[in-house]
Amino acid sequence: MRWFVISACFALLAGCAEQGRAKATGNLPDLRIADAATASGLPQTALAVTREILQSDPRNVGALLRQADALMSMGQSEAAEECYRRVLEIDARSADGLRGLGRAYLAKGEVHEAEATFRKAIGTNSNDAAALNNLGIALDLQERHEEAQAAYQSALAHQPSMTAAQVNMGLSLALAGNTDRALALLRPLANDPMADAKVRQNLAVALALAGDEVQAGKLLSADLPQDKVSSALAGYAALKVSAK
Question: Which of 14, 80, 99, 105 could be cross-linked to 114 through a Cys-Cys bond (beta carbons 3.0 to 4.6 Å apart)?
């Protein structure tokens, strides 16, 4: 229960996939079609496009990355992992490939492998804010909250506007028992009209851990049916017990 509840709250970042184009062979589709499909929430379309490209150009890193990302969004982490590994066979220093492989490990609950992979990405580029943010998640999931917060802080030093790192920092503070600081950070983020459900969910976690389950439930009700709200609150209660 603890793993499921916590991992569902964190905001992962894939980073920017390479923007290269497929080789111009006949009517071979452009990778921009895959990008547009992904942006529109159509991973199956992106998958079909990349498969067509890879049939004639199996070492096309841009297509492999987009295929892997599409598979991840469809919950097929093992198939995505295979694609990311193929990218790294072609380019062992690919930041996108390393971040993607780390995310695939996280999806399978392999947090130690994820940590090592994100550290490898950071070793390739110490300014990689997305990798630093994702490293923080891997550390938080191991209950190494102070180290996680240092990773988020590093991510924000390189990219101050990274909302995902700010949200993850707030959740990490709440899990570490610093609920006042967590609430101070998460409230303005959740009140932003552009905030998504994950930000509000993290504020609900902080509220529940601070003992305000009523407000946590009201916040969750904006995005979830009542049965899901009750289930989420039960999960947050388990987090509170385990944190003692």
Answer: 105
pLDDT of residue 48: 95
Q: Are residues 155 and 204 in the same domain?
A: no
Number of domains forming the structure of the chain: 2
Q: Domain span at residue 235?
A: 162-244
Task: Give the pLDDT confidence of 79-95 residue by residue, as tens digits.
Answer: 999 999 999 999 999 99
231 and 225 Cβ atoms separated by less than 8 Å: no
Cα(86)–Cα(97) distance, integer angstroms: 9
SS3 for 141?
A: coil
55-64 pLDDT per residue, tens: 999 999 999 9
100-131 pLDDT, tens digit per residue, is: 999 999 999 999 999 999 999 999 999 999 99
The token pair at 89 is 């066979």
Tokens standing for 7? 């991992």
CB 139 within 8 A of CB 151: yes
Among 157, 230, 232, CA closest to 198: 232
Tell me the CA distances in angstroms from 191 to 8, 199, 200, 203, one per residue in order.
21, 9, 8, 10
Regarding pTM above 0.90, the answer is: no
